[in-house]
Write a structure and sequence with these properties.
The structure is a single chain. It is built from 33 helices and six strands. It is mainly α and 696 residues long. The protein folds into three domains: 153 residues, Serine Threonine Protein Phosphatase 5, Tetratricopeptide repeat (Alpha Horseshoe); 226 residues, Serine Threonine Protein Phosphatase 5, Tetratricopeptide repeat, CATH 1.25.40.20; 170 residues. The strands form two sheets. Strands 4-1-5-6 form a four-stranded antiparallel sheet. Helix 4 runs parallel beside helix 6, helix 19 packs across helix 20 and helix 22 runs parallel beside helix 24. The longest helix has 33 residues. The protein is flat and about 120 Å long.
C-alpha cells in the first residue's frame, strides 16, 4: 500500500509528504491514497469534505506550477494554507513559491499576509524566506519580500549567514549588490568593532614554530618615503613562547561570527571583488583579524586566480571600446557580449589585483602584532608559488617586501620557488635588484639542504607535465639546476645531512627520469630512422629509372629538356641527401652515451636536426613524385599539375601537424631555454610597442 501511495504522488512530493501537517484536528487518522487523484474541481471543496493530503497536495502543486487562479481558489476555500508547513525545506506556502521561482504567486501571497512577522518563520534547516530567495538568486522576489518586511535582511540562517552572505556563497552578483545596500548596518557594528580593534591591538597570538624570519639588511622606498629593514643574517623565531602555539586544527576550523568578514570571504570566493573591496575599506582591521584566524584562507582563493597585470594591444583596444560606448547602445546584444567578455577576462582580474594590493598595503601600514603579516600571507604565498601565480607574488613583493625573507615551514619564499620549479616567479624575483645579491645567502634548512639542493630535487609532477616527453623533462631539469647554480655558486660543494652535494643529489633524484628520457629518445629515433631508410631506398632506385626512359643509343633521358624533368631530378637528389642525413643523425642518437649533460644541448640539437631533415626529405620526395606524374601524363591531362601538387601536400601536412608541436617545444627549450635572455626580451618588447604605435 505504501508503494502504491508513492507511485501516485508526484516526484516532488514523495520526499516531503511525510512532513505535511493537517490543519483540521477533527480528522486525526492516517490517510492512505489508494485511488487516482480527483480533478481539481473536486479538490477545491472545503478541507472537511475531503482528505487533507489530497487537498494540500493539490494546493502545493498549484503553487509550484505558478497557477495563480487555482492558488486564489484554494486560499478562498481555506485561508489557513498561508501558514501550513508542507515539508522540512518549506516552512510555509511563501517558501514554496520562492523555491519554485514564482514571483506572481509570491506577490499574491504577500498581499494576503497581514502580519509581516510570518515571513521571519524558518524552516527545519534554519532558512528564512529571504535566505532561500537569496540562494536561488530570485532578485524580483527578494525585492518584494524586503519591501514587505525590511527586517528580513538582518535575520541569519542556521549557519549564521545573513541573506546577503547566502547570495554571495552562490555567486549571485546582482542579488549581493541589492542586499548589500540594505544590510550595511547589520554588517558593521560600531561598538563591537571598536572593542575588537582594542582587543586586537593587545593580542599577540603565536603562529607556531614553523614560522621564522630571515633577517637581512635592506633599504627600500615605500610610498614615497624610505623604509629601512635592519636585520641580521640569522634566523629567529617570531614566536617568543614556543609552548603556547595555537592548535592548527582549531585555526583551520575557525569561522568568524562577524557578518562583514563572512561576506568579505564569500565575495572573494565567488569573485564579487567590488563588494569585498568595499567591506575591507570600511573595516580593514576586522578583515585582517578574520584572515589571521583563518591563516589566510580567504586569500588562498586569490592565489588560485590569474592576477597578472593586463597588458597588450588587445587589452588597450577592448578598454577603449568599453569606455567609449555610448549609454544608448549599452542594451544591444553585441555590446552586452563585449561587456561580459571584458568583465570576465580583464575587469575581474584588475579588481582582484587591486583588492590584494589594498590588503597588503594595510598589512604594511597598520600597527599590527608582528605575527599578523606572516599569518595572513604565508599559506597564500605557498599556494601562489605552487600554482605559478606570478601576479600574486608581484603584488606581495611590492607591497610587503619583507615577506620574501620569512621562513615558511622551514624554507624561505625563494627556496619554495626553487623547490617547486617555478621559473617565471624565479625570473621575476631575480630581476629585483634589492634581493638579487642576497638570494644565494639563504641559509640551509634543518636537513642541511641549500637552495641548490632544492634545485637538484625532482620537480613536482605539474611542472614536469609542461614538457612533451621524458627527454625534454630532463633537459628542463638540467636548465633549472644550472640556472640556480649561477646565483648560488657557493652552495655547489656543500653537503647536506645525508652527505650529498647538490650534484650528487641531482643524479640520484633524476635517475629514473634519465632512463625514461633515454628510452623515449631511442624509440623516437628508431621510428624516424625507419622512415628515413625507406625514403633513401626509394629515391636511390628512382634516380636510375627516370620517367619516360632513356634514349637507346646514348642513354640520355628522353625528357631531359623538360622543366618538369629538372624539378624531378633535383627533388629526387635533395630527398636522397636529406633522408640519408636524417638516418645518420638518428643513428647517432642510438650510439650516444646518454650522459646527464648530453640532455642539455647535444641530444636536443641532434633530435632537431633529425626531425627537420626528415621533414625536408618527405617534402622533396612528394615534389619528385608529382613532377614524375605530370611529366608522364601531361600530354593527355593538361589539368593534372595543380591537383597533383595539392595531393602531394597532404602527407607533408600530416607529418608537419603531428610533429610541429614537439619540434617547436624542443626549439624553444634549447634556444634560449626556459630563461629568456633579457636583451632579447627587451628588443622584442620594443618591436611590439613600435608595431602597436604604427597600428594606431
Amino acid at each position: 500500500m505504501e508503494e502504491l501511495h508513492k507511485r501516485q504522488l508526484p516526484h516532488s512530493l514523495q520526499v516531503s509528504v511525510a512532513y505535511m501537517k493537517h490543519m483540521d484536528s477533527s480528522d486525526d487518522q492516517s490517510i492512505v491514497v489508494e485511488e487516482e487523484h480527483p480533478s481539481l474541481d473536486i479538490r477545491l471543496q472545503k478541507p472537511k469534505e475531503t482528505n487533507h493530503l489530497t487537498f494540500h497536495q493539490s494546493f502545493y502543486e498549484a503553487v509550484q506550477l505558478g497557477s495563480l487562479p487555482d492558488v486564489k481558489k484554494f486560499l478562498e476555500a481555506d485561508s489557513s494554507l498561508l501558514t501550513t508547513r508542507f515539508t522540512q525545506l518549506e516552512a510555509n506556502v511563501i517558501q514554496v513559491a520562492v523555491l519554485a521561482g514564482q514571483p506572481e504567486i509570491v506577490d499574491e501571497l504577500l498581499q494576503r499576509i497581514n502580519d509581516p512577522k510570518s515571513l521571519k518563520v524558518k524552516n527545519n534547516y534554519g532558512e528564512t524566506t529571504l535566505t532561500l530567495a537569496a540562494a536561488k538568486g530570485e532578485i524580483d522576489i527578494a525585492k518584494k519580500l524586503v519591501s514587505k518586511c525590511d527586517e528580513l535582511v538582518g535575520i541569519k540562517n542556521l549557519s549564521g549567514d545573513l541573506p546577503v552572505v547566502q547570495a554571495a556563497h552562490f555567486g549571485h552578483n546582482e542579488m549581493v549588490h541589492y542586499l548589500y545596500s540594505r544590510s550595511e548596518k547589520h554588517l558593521m557594528n560600531t561598538s563591537e568593532r571598536a572593542k575588537e580593534a582594542e582587543t586586537y591591538e593587545d593580542e599577540g597570538e603565536p603562529y607556531g614554530d614553523s614560522l621564522k624570519v630571515l633577517n637581512v639588511s635592506i633599504n627600500t622606498e615605500l610610498y614615497g618615503s624610505e623604509k629601512s629593514y635592519n636585520f641580521k643574517l640569522v634566523s629567529e623565531d617570531l614566536n617568543q613562547d614556543s609552548s603556547g602555539h595555537a592548535d592548527a586544527q582549531a585555526l583551520t576550523l575557525y569561522s568568524s561570527w562577524h557578518n562583514g568578514f563572512r561576506l568579505f570571504k564569500a565575495c572573494i570566493t565567488t569573485e564579487i571583488y567590488d563588494i569585498a573591496s568595499a567591506i575591507f575599506k570600511q573595516d580593514p582591521r576586522q578583515c585582517i583579524k578574520g584572515m589571521k584566524e583563518e591563516k589566510g584562507a580567504a586569500l588562498k582563493t586569490l592565489a588560485l586566480r590569474d592576477l597578472a597585470e593586463p597588458t597588450g594591444f588587445q587589452y588597450a583596444l577592448v578598454t577603449w571600446i568599453h569606455s567609449h560606448i555610448p549609454a544608448w547602445a549599452s542594451g544591444h546584444t553585441l555590446v552586452k557580449h563585449v561587456f561580459s567578455w571584458y568583465d570576465k577576462n580583464y575587469k575581474r582580474r584588475i579588481d582582484a589585483r587591486q583588492l590584494l594590493t589594498d590588503i597588503c598595503r594595510q598589512l604594511s601600514i597598520l600597527k599590527l602584532p608582528p605575527t599578523t603579516m606572516p599569518a595572513v600571507l604565508s599559506d597564500p604565498i605557498l599556494t601562489a608559488v605552487s600554482m605559478g601565480n606570478v601576479g600574486f607574488i608581484e603584488v606581495v613583493a611590492r607591497e610587503c617586501p619583507d615577506m620574501l625573507w620569512f621562513e615558511i615551514h622551514g624554507m624561505a619564499t625563494f627556496a619554495h620557488v626553487v623547490f617547486e620549479g617555478q621559473d617565471k616567479i624565479y625570473s621575476y624575483l631575480r630581476k629585483n635588484t634589492e634581493t638579487h645579491c642576497l638570494l644565494g645567502t639563504i641559509r640551509p634548512d634543518r636537513k642541511g639542504n641549500t637552495i641548490l639542493h632544492y634545485a637538484a630535487m625532482l620537480s613536482p609532477a605539474p611542472r614536469l607535465s609542461h614538457f612533451a616527453g621524458p627527454s625534454l623533462q630532463m633537459q628542463g631539469e638540467l636548465q633549472w639546476f644550472e640556472e640556480v647554480k649561477k646565483i648560488a655558486p657557493m652552495c655547489e660543494g656543500v653537503v647536506n645531512r645525508d652527505d650529498k652535494t647538490p650534484t650528487q643529489l641531482f643524479t640520484e633524484e633524476h635517475k629514473e627520469l634519465k632512463e625514461s628520457g633515454e628510452k623515449w629518445m631511442k624509440d623516437m629515433a628508431t621510428s624516424c630512422s625507419v622512415v628515413a631508410t625507406l625514403i633513401v631506398t626509394i629515391m636511390f632506385a628512382t634516380a636510375f629509372s627516370v620517367p619516360g626512359g632513356n634514349q637507346s643509343d646514348t642513354g640520355i633521358p628522353i625528357f631531359l629538356e623538360s622543366k618538369y624533368f629538372t624539378i624531378f631530378i633535383l627533388s629526387d637528389a635533395f630527398s636522397m641527401f636529406f633522408s640519408c642525413t636524417s638516418a645518420l643523425v638518428f643513428l647517432g642518437i642510438h650510439t650516444s652515451l646518454f650522459r646527464e649533460e648530453d640532455f642539455l644541448i647535444r641530444l636536443p640539437m641532434t633530435l632537431i636536426a633529425g626531425l627537420f631533415t626528415l621533414f625536408l626529405s618527405i617534402a622533396t620526395m612528394m615534389v619528385a613524385f608529382s613532377a614524375a606524374v605530370v611529366l608522364t601524363v601531361r600530354e593527355r591531362f593538361v589539368w593534372i599539375t595543380l591537383p597533383m601538387l595539392m595531393c602531394a601536400g597532404i602527407p607533408v601536412t600530416i607529418y608537419a601537424v603531428l610533429q610541429i608541436r614537439i619540434f617547436i617545444h624542443i626549439v624553444k627549450l634549447t634556444f634560449p631555454g626556459i630563461f629568456h635572455h633579457p636583451s632579447l626580451a627587451m628588443k622584442w618588447k620594443q618591436m611590439s610597442s613600435t608595431r602597436k604605435l604604427l597600428i594606431w
